[in-house]
């Protein structure tokens, strides 16, 4: 889904074709490689969006000794769906790294609604963590398993605290209008 949000967000700015978007992702930092985005995956998502009526071919560029380039534009239906996809992206994850594509499209959504979603995510994380922490005394651990339990608890605590910290920072930056 995040690849489709990326494509639609870019087509909101200008008409484009798959190879051009792939090239934008690979220069100067190879974000495509870091995210495992291949050219075939990108073409697949363009085709999927076209079948859904969210984008359409508006031009075919013919070049000698090269394959034709199909230039796509976002449709009215695509403009309508993009905010829904962005909200869904924020709702389906509570990890900032998985939200980055959605953050790129913040200009196409109601930021207050995004803040509400993110605050809900933080509250759910804290609630889950409190429930797990409350179970600690109820679970019998052998002496030989204490070190493992302490290691795992430390790791999970640090990850949870770090994630909540970054989500709260993201919420504050959106509220302040910085993002």
TrEMBL record:
Source species, domain of life: Bacteria
Domain spans labelled Transcription regulator PadR N-terminal: 7-82
Residues annotated as signal peptide: none
Alphabetized InterPro entries for the sequence: Metal_resp_DNA-bind_regulator, Tscrpt_reg_PadR_N, WH-like_DNA-bd_sf, WH_DNA-bd_sf
Coiled coil: none
Gene3D superfamilies attached to this UniProt entry: Winged helix-like DNA-binding domain superfamily/Winged helix DNA-binding domain (1.10.10.10)
PANTHER family, per the entry: PADR-FAMILY TRANSCRIPTIONAL REGULATOR, TRANSCRIPTIONAL REGULATOR RV3488
Protein name: Transcriptional regulator
